[in-house]
Known about the structure:
- By secondary structure, the chain is α+β, with helices and mostly antiparallel strands.
- Helix content is 27%, strand content 27%.
Amino acid sequence: MGGRWDFLEWLSPDVSTSVLTRIDDPADLARVSAVSWSWRMFVVANGFGKRLCLRNYPDVPSFSCIFEVSTVNKTAQVGCSAAAEWESLEREHRVYLYLSHCLGSSKCERNCISQAICASSTDNYPDESIANTLEPSEIVDRRPSYWSSSGQRDPSMSESLTYKLVANLCIVDEIKIKPFRAYFQYGHPIYSAKAVRIRMGCSRSGSGISCSPDQQSALIEQYHWRYTSPEFPMAHENVLQSFKLPKPVICLGGVLQIELLGRVQKQAMDDLYYICVCHVQVLGRPLSPVLDLNVHESADNLAVTYFPDARSCTLPVRVTEDDARDSSSWQSLATRFWHLGAVRRNQVILSMLLGPIQFSDDDGDVDGDKNDN
């Protein structure tokens, strides 16, 4: 041990910072912060967890405030501003490392739509309402199930479909849309759009309920959009088409809008252009119950609440064989950390990234008009 050096003690802070900023994996940064108390202090004090997250995912916001709600009792040091500042840096470190891990993982993808809020227009309400797009089948109760826009003479006119997601913070990776094929019309026309664009944000008023056509135009103005995707061309086909975002994005506020840009299909009986959609999916994963966004009318101040005790409450969805192999390798790594003499604090750090770690008994004593007429 006498021949080993701690490079953080031998190198200058600038050089050490230059070395650690080259880390691009949150798990590696967690390992660095678990080496020793001095290394952890250096990582946390310099905000490397936040730097890594914002560098890999520029759309992640810089939260104005991070609260933590835990059942673990902490000794409060009244009047100690340095201790309070350190606790704030620790919270920031844990939250941004957790976000980096979640954004880089696709193990828990699911359809994140909770409910349909509104459409920019509807031809025959409620028979052709946006609520029909939540149904995976094109036929429900022996009737065609789809949303239809109103007819337009200008093919450049766009439409939008707005949805409420299952949580105020959701990672969105992919959107799937199936245009409707009017099998009851001559030629079986497909009423697709020319292109698709995705917007994500929050409600300015806090409302997120469905509305009737006379409320649609007013409600659409009540949203603040924090992310806008590139445009994706839509194929003129009656299939569930995938539109994958360039990088996973955190939907801040739990509201997602699909913009349907341009029209390609006329209806023969009235010579007007329509867009019709029979099914929509938003694939990703909610960050609740571990993280929750406090949505306020102010669009600039974003406060997040962190529930570390809820990390083991996330639901496993659509885990593949590759995911299982990855999980086994992480568990093996965690076990090696334990045998190398890592202190219990390291188990907490690893659990923050990897979820609950199960050790075997040999690992030691561990706390465990398109109507169909």
